[in-house]
Amino acid sequence: MACTPDVWRLCSDQVPDVQRIVACLRQNTPQLSNNCRAVFESNAQQQQTQGRAQQPQMQGRAPQQPQMQQRPRAPQPVQPAPSRPPFDDED
Fold first, then answer.
1. Which one, 25, 27, 32, 33, has least CB within 10 Å?
2. What is the rounded CA–CA span in Å between residue 31 and residue 60?
3. What is the DSSP string of the chain?
4. Coil, helix or strand for 57?
5. What is the pTM assigned to this prediction?
């Protein structure tokens, strides 16, 4: 949520691919808002702390990306099926 404005401002062409959004935000770190940058720094510190505690288990695994929530999509309007004239047996 803290990065949503930055995503739209800097990386809107990457939506909805979360991995590409995260990569884009990392490439644009100097332009990130303070709140968004804090999220990335917090996640990086958590990964370093977890990496030290679980280092033997982490071999061969890719580092986890920061979790970003996707915006819920607006429901699509439901259109009624076209009406058909009743069948006339006398045709």
1. 27
2. 32
3. -TTHHHHHHH-GGGTT-HHHHHHHHHHTGGGS-HHHHHHHHHHHHHHHHHHHHSGGGGTT-PPPPPP-PPPPPPPPPPPPPPP-PPP-TT-
4. helix
5. 0.51
